[in-house]
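Methods: example folding runs. The two proteins below were folded one after another, and each record is reproduced exactly as written to the output file, sequence line first and structure-token line second.
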Amino acid sequence: MKRIAVVGAGMGGLSALHTLANAGCEVTVFDKSRGSGGRMATKKLNAASWDMGAQFLRSHSNAFRLQLAHWQQQGWIETWPIVPDRIDHHGIHTSEDDVQRFVGVSRMTALCRQLLTPAHEFHTATRIISCTKRVDGWMLSDEQEQHFGPFDGLIINTPPEQAQPLLTASPTLFDHPKPDMLPCWTLLLAFDLPLATTVNAAFVEGSPIAWIARNSSKPQRDALQTWVIQADHDWSQERVDSPREQVQETLLAAFFDALKLPSQPCTEIWLHRWLYAIPAAPLEQGALIDQAQQLAVCGDWCHSASVEGAWLSGQAAARALLES
């Protein structure tokens, strides 16, 4: 039985985990956070909760369409029956968007917890800082000087900036060009009463904001009225180190302006900065592979900028280790 380590429990790592476990491998997963999901994150604050990262799942490929159908059959995801509006300087416009969107229930991270089930072990709050290839396999070390291994193979599922220091044992992958990742400021709001708008979700143009969603319009969500506001990536890049109070004030004003509503008090407010939100130019290579070293790197930045891209990348990484 092959023993495989997966560093990073985002969608790419979880996708690889399933493929490897189904092939009979013993898979140990590591993540620096307290749970799984990566950018499919949920924030909970008192009685309010939000999907503050990936907003939905959709398919472009037949493989992912079939996977979504399977997850839906399992009861892990449901359709989000909305048609996003389009907002610009001229107002709010209905769209002819006919994309079928899915969400994890009762939150996006719930899907990730289901996908984590086949793991032999899951080490949370464990930041791996070095990966060394020895004769007997891969040895991993974290910042607390704990050591793990040996493992027959290694998959790294992190943003490129975090993957780079873990690739020193593979000059090929260490030197491989990697894309820049763009940030995203995300504002989370909660209100006691519904806002006077028919908008449930909208793509926004000509604003600091790129996306607005009434999180409480998703299936099996809390009754409290909650909203997710995701800033434009270029706008976020220009203000990546701006004072949080300034960013929050600007996004809050832009939110009410986009919905053509007067400002009103919210019961909860939270600002989050995704430093590595989305690849500026994905490699479109599936995954980065060093079969001689039994090493693979996966993530949306290796394939395409979406949850689907991360899932397909994880599939490619797992297949490469199984074939070598």
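Second run, written to the same file directly after the first:
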Amino acid sequence: MGRNRFPVFLVFAFLLFAMLLADSPLPAESADNIIAALKRYTPQQFEALRKVAKHDAQAQNILGLAYLTHTKVDQDYREAYELFRKAALQGYGPAQNNLAFLYTHGLGVPKDLSIAAEWLRKAGENGETAAQEQLADMYFTGTGLRKDLPEAAKWFEVAARSGDARAQNNLGLMYNAGLGVAKDRATAARWFRAAAEQGIAQAQNNLGVLYLTGQGVPEDHHEAFKWFTLSAEKGDVNAQENLANLYVHGHCMPEDLVSAYLWMSLAAEKQSNDRKLLHGFELRMSPEQLEQAKKRAKAWESAHNLPSAALRF
């Protein structure tokens, strides 16, 4: 579940000093948009930001991001730390979250996961969903904190109820396996669906598995096929395996060895165990079917230049 995070999740607002920067672009609440806006600042606009940052927590946080990301200023992790800390001590949630990021990775300060967890908790209590999810990760893995599955489930649920899709998927996994909560596959299915409808590939595969097996939802192979397909198209290797098996066994459609080979061959590139299954498919296929399947697989790879999925949990 743990992963290194560049602070792409940082949320900022310019409301308190927007009038000072009326001619500058107003970014949406994402770090990418804010950084893009900062890059367009004139020297006068950036100087106005510096002045407001002497007392305003939001401005301090944004200026800290500039120093963290080498935007309009030389990269200076210590200066980023000082700015985030000033804003964090004023109770500004995004800055608390960002300060935790610095402590997590040892940027500008010695790495200290226990201090990071303290700031994540403050940010989480201030409604920062990224902090809530990260804190849940730490409780789940016992990283920087004593491992505590019920506490992990609590924080995943807080983030999940705020709409965080990855937290929804992770909470579904905890209910599905009975980790820190009573096993409840109907509840797992509800959280998997919430994440799946937001496009999380792993959640789509997880929901497909429940429909395939009739756990927590009525057994429905057509629904399983739908969710496996959505997930497989995003590159999820488990969904590709599951989709191949649906095609080869004809659960809800006529047997289709060409499509089965397509998906299993894509999965086999990441999972060596699938190569044996792929060889079994080949033995059942005609030369024409095999050639067609390989062409489709090559065309799919050309059209989907997907990175390897870094599956959570």
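Comment on the second run: Confidence is low (pLDDT under 50) at residues 2-28, 306-313.
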